[in-house]
Design a protein that fits this description.
Blueprint (H helix, E strand, L loop, with lengths): L3 E7 L4 E7 L1 H11 L3 H17 L8 E8 L5 E6 L4 E6 L16 H5 L2 E8 L6 E6 L6 H11 L4 E9 L5 E11 L5 H13 L3 H6 L4 H6 L6 E8 L1 E2 L5 H9 L3 H11 L2 E4 L6 E4 L5
Parallel strand pairs: 5-11
Antiparallel strand pairs: 1-2, 1-10, 2-9, 3-4, 3-6, 4-5, 6-7, 8-9, 12-13
Helix pairs in contact: 1-2
Length: 282
């Protein structure tokens, strides 16, 4: 099944719904970074949330979501440069903790206390930075807190990654449901009831439901589909892009490195692609 993202509204446009299936996206991230199960689940949740947040504004050029926790995973970063694409990494991919008392991945312990930073670049002089303390480390709850605290948008966020016994990603995806200004209390209460009884996202997607079917679970009356698109893990790095920062080191420093190493090699942290530069190329 192809990964996809849907944007819709319901309840006479008083509720906005984002849903996404990301099984292939998260599996590609796992393959690139060789993550262990707990790390796979944490990175997958961040990538899933970043994909949905990356389509929330038509003027957004680049969105960065960063969890800087004190847990063993270290920093976790998700970046969306264009709608439907995401890339990311985490400092310590080889982390796998015991399950929590509920039998789930202990993402909260793996992330730990710290800060969540959301950077929105709209192509203006200065990007928007929103910083909030990490509330639980479960990623979804933290993003919901960010929306409510920094953007004053009451939101429910559900994110999930199901990892198979062999370590591969079996199912992944999520939803963000937001109450827009003027939303009646009755609608909010109806959504609360839906959220109370809705199965886990991974249970829904692993059963074969699509992002569109997931969105319909939140419909109150009719569902108006605003957009639907495929999603993928995509890194836009290039040899030319890394050349600029290298040149900024200055001639003397570059000559010193080349004298010691012969060539200069850099590696992209998002896709692990390596680029080698000779003295002549620089």
């Amino acid at each position: 099944m192809t990964d996809s993202l849907m944007i819709a509204t319901t309840a006479n446009d008083m509720v906005r719904i984002y849903t996404v299936s990301t099984t292939g996206v998260v599996e590609e991230a796992r393959r690139i970074h060789q993550t262990w199960p707990t790390a796979t689940a944490a990175l997958g949740r961040v990538l899933t949330g970043t994909l949905m947040m990356g389509v929330m504004s038509d003027t957004l050029k680049r969105l960065t979501v960063q969890f800087a926790g004190e847990g063993p995973l270290g920093k976790i970063i998700g970046v969306s440069n264009q709608p439907g694409t995401v890339k990311g990494y985490l400092e310590n991919p080889q982390v796998d903790l015991d399950l929590n008392p509920l039998g789930k991945f202990d993402i909260a312990k793996a992330v730990g206390p710290g800060t969540l930073t959301v950077i929105k670049d709209h192509g203006l002089k200065n990007p928007y930075n929103g910083v909030v303390p990490i509330q639980s480390g479960e990623i979804g709850e933290d993003l919901a807190y960010y929306f409510t605290k920094s953007e004053q948008i009451p939101s429910a966020v559900g994110l999930g990654v199901l990892v198979a016994p062999d370590g591969q990603v079996q199912a992944a995806g999520g939803f963000i449901v937001q109450l827009l200004p003027g939303c009646p209390d009755a609608v909010a209460m109806s959504l609360e009831e839906t959220l109370r009884y809705i199965p886990a996202v991974t249970t829904i997607l692993n059963s074969g439901e699509t992002s569109a079917q997931l969105a319909r679970r939140f419909a109150i009356g009719s569902l108006k589909i605003l957009a639907e698109m495929p999603v993928k893990y995509y890194c836009d790095c290039s040899g030319e892009r890394f050349r600029g920062p290298l040149l900024s080191l200055g001639r003397q420093e570059l000559e010193k490195i080349i004298q010691e190493q012969g060539n200069i090699e850099v590696q992209c942290q998002f896709c692990n692609q390596k680029y080698t530069y000779s003295a002549a190329e620089l």
